[in-house]
# Entry
Amino acid sequence: MEARAVAPGIQLLRARRASNFSLGFYKASVLGITFLAYAGYHAARKPISIVKAVLHPEYSDPGFAVSPSSNLSPSSSIDPGNAREGWSPFVGSRGMYFAGHLGDRLNLRFFLSAGMAGSGAFSCLFGMAYWWKVHSLGYFILVQMVAGVFQSTGWPSVVTIVAKWFDKSKRGLIMGIWNCHTSAGNIVGSLLAAEMLQYGWGWSFVAPGFLMAMAALVVFFFLAVDPEEVDMSSSMASVGGGGGGASTSGQAAATELIMLRQPQSMGGKFHSVMIDGSSLQGLDINGDGEEFREVSLAPGTRNDSAVGFFDAWMIPGVAQFALCLFFSKLVAYTFLYWLPFYIRHTKIAGNYLSDGMSGRLSTLFDVGGMFGGVAAGYISDQLNAKATTAATFLYVAVPALVLYRVYGSSSLAGNVVLMVFLGAFINGPYALITTAVSADLGTHSSLSGSSKALATVTAIIDGTGSVGAAIGPLLTGFVSEKGWDAVFGMLITSVLIAALLLSKLVYTELTVKFASANAAPFQPLGDDQNQFY
# Structure
């Protein structure tokens, strides 16, 4: 059982005002602090993509001016050795499986703040090589690997914390807005690294690393991990919030909304009904002698037993979304690490851009990702169909990739528009799956009310995605030897596979939706459909 120590800063503030804060205050502070925390994680990851060209052995101009020798084709300018940056997400993906397992068992405030401090420290150590005159590849690989382990603590922790404070009804929209921290961190990291580059590439790593360490202090002193630890359980229960349906006070809600299927003699249709108690057996709802099948419900108390790693894989929908995210993050992280380099070595309107300009222009991909994440969350809330929303975005991303490759170099304005459009449809489903979908599956009905599965499920889904995040940049280093067309072909194939992996879930969502719409005499009341995955 995790410790329930209140954050020192909250204790001090409550003592000064001689009363507790409101539920709205805690919710706003949780969203703000976790937003800051994960934006810091992404800002610390970004410098390597900005500094890449300067660290390249063939680079001849340390400033922003473009030298003729740097206008190279992909086959001559890209060394597969550059893909070694994949070490960090690769190690992080393995660390994330373990981190999620720990996250369900440890105090998340301590766990998250320690991970942030360690990530910031190793970002600084990478940059210190500039002044220490370190030229050993082993040093950089070791630092990246350890940094990846600390980075893995972030995502399972922040998603679990936010899910404890917000219920499922608006989770897609809220988490879609909140998930802008990913793009915000990328943008800040890119701009900061690009600006610090003129003072020496080491500053591009030290500056975000220092900011990350400062953010860790904010998390340690002011983050409220759970409503229960700040005496907000009763307030959460009164507004129906938190925990994805498992009451934070230890008691399940008196009534639950479920969907029942009629016997085959009545057509086997779905109906939504509000029920009390622990089971329905032989209930004659229509008054026509036809009885619904028995439906067993979870016990009325909170289940605090942690869910095993392999048991979490068996939750319906986890494997499909995890594999989908593998290919989605493969594409997203290829852009994260390679887009500035691609822009730097591709003529736009007949001209090559400088390193700094390339880095700044690449942030527009993340601007599009912000809009895409919010839009995907809002649409999924309105349709109550997360798999369908994610798959639709992924299918639209295919022609978007083609358009960017073919027309992105024709003009600077065209590149900007297509990059924003592309970012929206690639990062939209990525954001939806890593936030609202992970939180919903972490509180799936098959868990019998367990409150200790969120971090494990989140780690499985995002950890599997992080394997793709490591493989994408690594493969790009080798595939690019055949030209950029080959790279985009790999990305298009990956997006298609990601969309197809959700086909069964999309079919289930649409089947349930149509069955509910046609069901009579009951009017469907709505429910999370992830219980049917």
Notes: Residues 60-95, 244-302, 520-532 have pLDDT under 50 and may be disordered.
